[in-house]
Structures are given as structure tokens and as C-alpha cells.
Amino acid sequence: MLNSPPALENLVQELSKLPSIGRKTARRLAFHLLSGDREKMESLADALTQAKDKIVHCSRCYGFSESEICQICENPRRDEGILCVVERASDILPFENSGIHKGLYFVLGGVLSPLDGIKPESLHIPELIKRIEQENTRELILALGSSPEAESTALYIDRVLANSQVRRTRLARGIPVGSELEFIDDITMLRAFEERVKI
Amino acid sequence: MLNSPPALENLVQELSKLPSIGRKTARRLAFHLLSGDREKMESLADALTQAKDKIVHCSRCYGFSESEICQICENPRRDEGILCVVERASDILPFENSGIHKGLYFVLGGVLSPLDGIKPESLHIPELIKRIEQENTRELILALGSSPEAESTALYIDRVLANSQVRRTRLARGIPVGSELEFIDDITMLRAFEERVKI
Questions:
Q1: 0.80 cut: is pTM over it?
Q2: What is the pLDDT of residues A172-182, one digit of tens each?
Q3: H/E element holding A27?
Q4: Interface with chain B: mutation pick from A52, A56, A60, A71, highest number of B CBs within 10 Å
Q5: Which residue of chain A comes nearest to B68, CA vs CA?
Q6: Domain A6-54 matches domain A76-198 at the CATH topology level
Q7: Do the beta carbons of residue B107 and residue A13 sit within 8 Å?
Q8: Across the interface, do B44 and A96 touch by the CB < 8 Å criterion?
Q9: Closest residue of A to B74, CA-based?
Q10: Which CATH superfamily is domain B6-54 in?
Q11: Where are the domains of chain B?
Q12: d(C-alpha B77, C-alpha B16), whole Å
């Protein structure tokens, strides 16, 4: 904008780099921040710097942590025998929120995509295989989403472990609880029908 | 979230204070920032601190500025005789973007709202009246929006200046350019009809 203070334009620029924040929203956020209590801007800036400096990847599961080993991996009450493999660190959240998984996690860091040059070594797949060989893993839950890439990644890991004793499972697919049938997409309906269970 | 690093939770907390950013979006933004190039977090933190420290209110028009007097007020090519009165500093933007207004601005800082205790002295109305008395203002464009409070604020300023020579105007109301008539709300249609002009 013509005649706008450079520090304001720079803030708008930086905010608009965030996902789903366009230039107009960024401008609205900047004006909101400048019009209110300015200390809020300081707290947000501090939170960003702190998060940047403190948060590392857990060296065991590759999730986010403030220490070498994250709180989940460190917890002696979690069942080491059940390993839930997810694509991204953020995928741990829904499991922890539901409280259903008592085992540990392993973040792959993505899914296989040969066309984009993402091979097993580009992800943490070698580390996963090594960990399973060394530890007493009884069950591997491959919780990798339903894109073709995610499905072939799960298949790849399943095949590599074909001769191992580890039980490989994946999450059930079906109708989400509370959904109206008329709003279910075709693929979900297909899967829910195929994987129907006896009452 | 249980077991989530405190620095991550703090960042989510700070981001969710932004308008239209809920807790889920804040978490998505935080994960995005942590997963990508960490330098981005530093630039955003810097932009926030810089904006907080550098941006002040222009002492003449109360818009945002990095100096005592903003670039618009300082520009000798702007027509000092035409003063466009707006509610918030962000309202200057659409005028500057269109490039139609060659005069100056004056930010009221809000609109009158007796029920909320917002009286003329709570806004910059006394400064506006003083400025008009002292300067050669020919026209005052009251660009204050169409809420009942905004309309009564414009009326109030108009009455205070009843005995002055300053021409008071407001923006035309009507159908936005490019709009389909069927999507126009009732009040806009009423105004557009009332203020119809001869072709």
C-alpha cells in the first residue's frame, strides 16, 4: 500500500505467509494487533521465538519435544509393545485426545512418493525397521491416512516386515460416529460396506 | 494437550488470541511453523516486535505512522482543504487503494455510543473541531459506515459544524459495482432507490 508504514507492510507480509491466511486477512490481523493492547504482540513474538528455540524432534519417535526424549517416550507406564506409526507429528494429537492408545508413537515424517523422489530412506523408515528389530514390539498400528501414497507406504512397511513376528494393523475405516448417511462420500461408503462387521 | 511441549502449547494459546483464529486453526498454524523452515518463525517474531516498537499514531490524523507526522499528512501535494473522516486507521486503506481521494484523513478512533459510555471526548472529535476551526478546510467527507452509531456520529459532527462554512458530505450509498440485484440486501436497495440519480 502506498503511504503505509514499512513496519506495518512487513508484518502483513509475514502474516500472509501462514497457511490459509491471505493478504486481506493478514492486514486485518495486523490492524487488530496494532489497535489493541500492544503487549499482545510482544507475547506472540516471544511465543514464536521460544517455540523456535526450544522445540526439537524427539530422538526416539521424531515427535515434537522440549527434551532429547519426549514425555510420551519417557513415560514408563506406556506400553512399549504397541507402536502407532503416523505421518506427521501433528497426527499424534487425535490419539492423545481420545486417550485410547496406551503405547508409543513413531513419526515417519511423510509418505513414500517415488515421483517426488521420496524413498524409504527419505523418511524414518530405516529407523522404524531397526527399532522393531531391536525392541519387543508386538503390534505396529499403521495410522497413515487414506491417500494412495499413504496406503502404499503402509503396504511397503507391511511387506518389509513380512517375515517378522510383529502384528501389523491399520485403523478401521467406516462411517464417522454421528454422521448422516446422506453426507458420506462414495469411497467412505465403499469401505464401510466392504468392512462391515457382524452385530 | 496432555504430553505436548509447553512452548508448543503456549504458541497455540497466543495464536488463538488472534481474531477469527480458533484453537484448531492455531494448532494447525503452530504445527506448520514448527514443521517448515524455522527461520520463518524468527521473521514473524521480528516483524511483530518491529511493528510494536516502531508504529505510532500520527499526531495530526491519528492514522498509523512510523514518524510523528505520517507520510500522507506530510505530503505537500495532498489537498489540505478536503478532510476525509474515518472510524479506524484501517479505513484509510480502501481510499488509498482507489487513489480517488487527494486530500487528507482524520481517524476518529471509534463512533459515539452513549450506552457504552463513548462520548465525543472519548473520540478525537474535539481535535477534529479544533482542526477545522484553525485550518482552511473546505470539505469534510464523513466516511463513517452505516451502523446506527456511525450515522448518529456523522449527524453529531454535522450539527456541531452547523454554523461553519465547511461543506459536509458523506459517501454515496447504492448498489456495489458488479453486483447482481438479486443478492442486494433490503436496506441497500432502499438507499439505492431513495438516492437514485438522473441519467
A1: no
A2: 888 888 888 88
A3: helix A23-35
A4: A52
A5: A5
A6: no
A7: no
A8: no
A9: A3
A10: RecR Domain 1 (1.10.8.420)
A11: 6-54, 76-198
A12: 43
